[in-house]
Design brief:
mainly alpha; about 5% strand; about 750 residues
C-alpha cells in the first residue's frame, strides 16, 4: 500500500462518510415528506400477492416492456445498479489494496463473468438510453417527443454516472489482469482479458480506477441527496415501494373502478360527512394520500404517459407527466411549511401555526423558508393569474381514458389523482365547465344526461316485429337483464345498436328483459366529472332497483348485459362499492359466445374492409379486446387494425364527461381518431360503445363534408355487422340517419316470415 493508495483511500472514505450521511438524511426527509399525505389503509396487504407483483414487474420488466426498444437497455442498467452495488463497495478495499476482492466469491470464475456482463451491460445500456433520449429530443419533434417538459440535465447526469460506473467496473478488472493480480479464464473476461494484455502492468491504476468508481457514486449520492425532486434518480429506490403499494394487489393497474372518495384513510360516507373535518376530494396537496405523494416522488419523467395521452397529442395543455411533476415540485416546496405544523382550513385561514404560545409561534415561523410560505399560498387548481399549481384547462382536458396509467412503468395512478382534484372543484368550489351544469341538472331531475323523459326509454322498441319483454315484478326464467343505458335509449345513432342487440338475442332464443322507465343513468359521467354526490345518489337508486329485480337469485345468476362500455365498467366495477354485486357482460362478449355455441349462425358474409376502434372503458379499463374482433371476423368482414389499437388505442374523446364539454383547444380528439381510422381505407368503422359511435360518426361526417372521407364510410356497432351476416337479405343502411326517419330494426324477408309461420 503506497502513498497513492493511502491518499486516494483516505479521500474516498472521508468524502463517502459525508456523502452517505447526506444521502441517509435525504431518505429520512423524503419519508417524512411522503408521510404528510393522508393515510390509506387499503395499501397494507395482502403481503404475498403484492410481493409477487413487485418481483414479476422488476425482474421481468413487464411494465417497462411496453416500450420494447427501451426495455432491454433499461433492464441492463437496472441490474447493473442493483448487483453492481456489491462491486462498488468492493472498491473501498481496492483503493487501498489493488489486489483486494470479496472473500470466497471474489475468486469464482462465474462471479468474474457476472462482473464482466454487468460492466458491459451498464455501459451499453447507459449509452443506449442517452442515444434514445437524443433521438427523441423535443428540439427534433416538439410536442411529439415524450420527453417534452422532462428535466434533461438530471437525466443526462444519471446516465453519465451509469456509464462511468460501468467503465470503472471494467477498468478495475482489466488493470487487475494487466498487473497479474487476477488471471480468470477468457470465457469469464472476454473483454477485459484482451484489454488487460495491452494495458500497462501497474497496480496504481487499479486503485485509480477503483477511486473513479467511488467518486462517481459519491457525487451521485451528494447530488440526489440535495435534490429530492430528481425523480429520474430517486425512482431507483422509490419504484420498488410504488409498485408494491399499487392500488390493485393482484397486479392490475389502477383502471376500471375509480378509487372511492376517502377522508382520513376511510371511505367517505357522504350522509355522515362533516365539511369542517372531512376532505372532499383534493383541494390542497396535503389532501392527497401518502401513496399520491409516493407517486409524485417516483415519476421518472420518461413521458410514456404523455406520448399516449389523447389530450396532449391533439394540442391540449394536459400532460399526465407534467401534472405529476408539477404536483411533486409543489409538494416538496410546500413541505417545510407542513412539517412545521402549518395547516389551513377550507376558508384559507391558518389553523396549524397559531399565536396561542407566542414564543413557539415565532420560532416555528422563523424556521420556515419564505419560499415555502409563498408556496403554501398557491391554490392547487387555479389559472395563471392566481398562480395555481394545476391550470383548470389542464384538469378538465382529461378524458380518463387511462392510457397514462396503462403505460406508466412505475404504476403511478394519474386518473385517480385527476378525478380527486375534480371532486373538490365540483363539490366544494362549485367551479367546473359551464356545460356540465346542464348535464348535472338533467341527471338529477331526469335520470339521464340528455334530460329526456323516463317514459320515452322504450321508444327504441317501436317498429320491431317482436315484443321486447319489460320487467313487471318477476324474472321467472329470464337469464339476462338487458341494461339499455341512456345513450341506447335516447341517442338516435345508439338506438340502432340497441335494436340490433335485441334482435340478435331474440334470434338466439336468449331470455332477457329490460327495465324500461325504471332504468336511470349509472352515474358514470357524474363520477368522472367529480360529482361524487350525484353519482352516489344515482348508484344507490339503481342498486336498490336491481337488488329488487334480482331478489331471491344467488349472486352468480344476477346477470346483466350492456351495450355501453361506460355502463359496463360502472355496473361491474363500481357498483360493488355501493352494495351491488352482479355478473355483467358486454354485448360483444355475449354475442361472441352465442356465435361459438351456434345459437347465432352468420350465413351471409359482410365482404367489406372494417377497422375496429377499441372503446377505452371496454378495452383498456376492462381488457376486453378479443370478443369484438372475433365478431368482426365471424361477420365475414376483413379487419384492418389501426396503428394504435388494443391497449394503445386512441381515445374517441368522450370519456371523463368530455362528451358534454366543448373542445375549444387544439385538434378535436375524435377527428384525430377518425383520421387514423381512415388511414386503413375502411368502408366501415366498427366499435362497441355508443359514446364512441357518436364521436366517431361526428368525425366522419366532418371529414366527409371536407371531402377527405368518402361518402360510403360509416360508423357501426359490431352487433350491426353480426346482424347483417345473420339475417339473410338484409340491406345495411349506408348513412347514419335518425331512427325516427328510418327504423334500424331489420325486417324479416318473405322467406323468413314463411319459415317462422311453418
Amino acid at each position: 500500500m503506497g502513498a497513492l493508495q493511502l491518499t486516494l483511500g483516505a479521500i474516498g472514505v472521508a468524502v463517502s462518510v459525508y456523502a452517505w450521511g447526506l444521502f441517509v438524511a435525504g431518505v429520512v426527509r423524503m419519508i417524512k415528506i411522503i408521510r404528510l399525505g393522508q393515510p390509506d389503509s387499503t395499501r397494507n396487504g395482502p403481503f404475498l400477492p403484492r410481493l409477487r407483483t413487485l418481483i414479476v414487474e422488476f425482474v421481468a420488466h413487464t411494465r417497462m416492456a411496453k416500450f420494447r426498444k427501451v426495455a432491454p437497455w433499461h433492464w441492463m442498467v437496472m441490474w447493473g445498479f442493483l448487483i453492481g452495488s456489491a462491486v462498488l463497495f468492493e472498491a473501498y478495499g481496492e483503493v487501498f489494496y489493488p489486489g483486494f476482492h470479496w472473500p470466497v466469491i471474489g475468486t469464482w470464475s462465474v462471479w468474474a463473468l457476472l462482473i464482466e456482463l454487468l460492466g458491459l451491460g451498464t455501459v451499453v445500456g447507459g449509452v443506449a438510453l442517452a442515444v434514445i433520449r437524443q433521438l427523441n429530443h423535443p428540439r427534433r419533434a416538439d410536442r411529439v417527443s415524450r420527453f417534452a417538459g422532462s428535466n434533461f440535465r438530471a437525466a443526462y447526469f444519471v446516465e453519465a454516472v451509469v456509464i462511468i460506473e460501468g467503465l470503472g467496473i471494467l477498468g478495475v478488472k482489466a488493470f487487475k489482469q494487466a498487473s497479474g493480480l487476477e488471471d480468470p479464464p477468457l470465457w469469464s473476461s472476454f473483454v477485459t482479458g484482451p484489454l488487460g494484455n495491452v494495458l500497462p502492468a501497474s497496480p496504481d491504476w487499479v486503485s485509480i480506477m477503483a477511486f473513479i468508481k467511488l467518486a462517481s457514486a459519491i457525487i451521485w449520492l451528494i447530488v440526489v441527496a440535495k435534490n429530492l425532486t430528481m425523480g429520474v434518480a430517486w425512482h431507483r429506490f422509490s419504484a420498488f415501494f410504488n409498485i408494491y403499494f399499487k392500488r390493485e394487489d393482484d397486479g392490475g393497474v389502477a383502471l376500471g373502478a375509480l378509487k372511492p372518495m376517502m377522508s382520513g384513510g376511510k371511505v367517505l360516507d357522504l350522509e355522515e360527512a362533516d365539511p369542517d373535518k372531512d376532505t372532499f376530494g383534493v383541494g390542497k396537496v396535503e389532501d392527497f394520500t401518502w401513496k399520491g405523494w409516493l407517486d409524485f416522488s417516483t415519476c421518472t419523467e420518461c413521458g410514456r404517459c404523455q406520448s399516449q395521452c389523447p389530450a396532449w397529442n391533439t394540442g391540449k395543455p394536459l400532460s399526465p407527466k407534467l401534472v405529476i411533476t408539477q404536483l411533486r415540485d409543489h409538494a416538496y416546496a410546500k413541505a417545510p411549511y407542513l412539517l412545521a405544523g402549518g395547516r389551513r382550513d377550507m376558508a384559507g385561514d391558518e389553523v396549524g401555526i397559531t399565536e396561542d404560545k407566542y414564543e413557539d409561534y415565532k420560532k416555528r415561523l422563523e424556521s420556515i423558508d419564505v419560499l415555502a410560505m409563498a408556496e403554501a399560498d398557491r391554490p392547487l387548481v387555479g389559472g395563471v393569474d392566481e398562480l395555481g399549481v394545476i391550470d383548470p384547462e389542464v384538469l378538465w382536458s382529461c378524458t380518463t381514458c387511462g392510457a397514462c396509467v396503462e403505460q406508466c412503468p412505475v404504476d403511478i395512478e394519474h386518473v385517480d389523482h385527476i378525478v380527486d382534484m375534480r371532486r373538490y372543484q365540483v363539490l366544494i368550489e362549485s367551479n367546473f365547465p359551464s356545460e356540465l351544469g346542464g348535464m348535472f341538472k338533467n341527471l338529477e331531475n331526469k335520470g339521464n344526461p340528455w334530460g329526456q323523459n323516463a317514459k320515452d326509454r322504450l321508444a327504441w322498441t317501436e317498429g320491431l316485429d317482436f315484443e321486447v319483454p319489460v320487467f313487471e315484478g318477476e324474472l321467472g326464467d329470464t337469464e339476462y337483464l338487458f341494461w339499455v343505458g341512456c345513450a341506447g335509449a335516447f341517442e338516435d345513432r345508439a338506438k340502432k345498436t340497441t335494436r340490433a342487440v335485441a334482435e340478435l338475442l331474440h334470434t338466439a332464443g336468449v331470455k332477457y328483459t329490460v327495465l324500461g322507465p325504471e332504468e336511470t343513468c349509472t352515474g358514470d359521467p357524474a363520477r368522472r366529472a367529480g360529482n361524487e354526490f350525484l353519482f352516489q345518489m344515482l348508484a344507490q337508486q339503481n342498486v336498490e332497483i336491481l337488488n329488487t329485480v334480482f331478489e331471491g337469485r344467488e349472486p352468480g345468476k344476477r346477470k346483466i348485459v350492456v351495450t355501453c362500455a361506460h355502463c359496463f365498467n360502472t355496473l361491474a366495477n363500481e357498483y360493488p362499492q355501493v352494495g351491488g354485486q352482479y355478473e355483467v357482460v358486454h354485448h360483444t362478449q355475449l354475442l361472441n359466445r352465442l356465435v361459438r355455441e351456434r345459437r347465432l349462425v352468420p350465413v351471409a358474409e359482410v365482404a367489406e374492409d372494417v377497422t375496429y376502434h377499441d372503446p377505452c372503458y371496454l378495452g383498456r379499463h376492462n381488457k376486453v379486446y378479443e370478443a369484438p374482433r372475433e365478431l368482426v371476423g365471424a361477420s365475414g368482414a376483413t379487419l384492418r387494425e389501426m396503428p394504435r389499437h388494443e391497449e394503445r388505442s386512441m381515445c374517441c374523446g368522450a370519456g371523463g364527461a368530455r362528451m358534454w364539454m366543448e373542445e375549444r383547444i387544439g385538434k378535436r380528439i375524435n377527428i384525430d381518431r377518425v383520421d387514423e381510422a381512415l388511414g386503413t381505407a375502411p368502408s366501415k368503422i366498427a366499435t362497441g360503445c355508443p359514446f364512441c359511435r357518436v364521436m366517431l360518426t361526428d368525425g366522419v361526417t366532418a371529414r366527409q363534408n371536407e371531402g377527405v372521407a368518402g361518402g360510403h364510410v360509416e360508423v357501426v356497432d359490431v352487433a350491426q355487422l353480426l346482424l347483417t351476416a345473420v339475417r339473410r337479405g338484409q340491406e345495411q343502411e349506408r348513412q347514419d340517419v335518425p331512427t325516427d326517419e328510418v327504423g334500424s330494426g331489420t325486417p324479416l324477408t318473405e322467406e323468413d316470415k314463411a319459415g317462422t309461420q311453418s
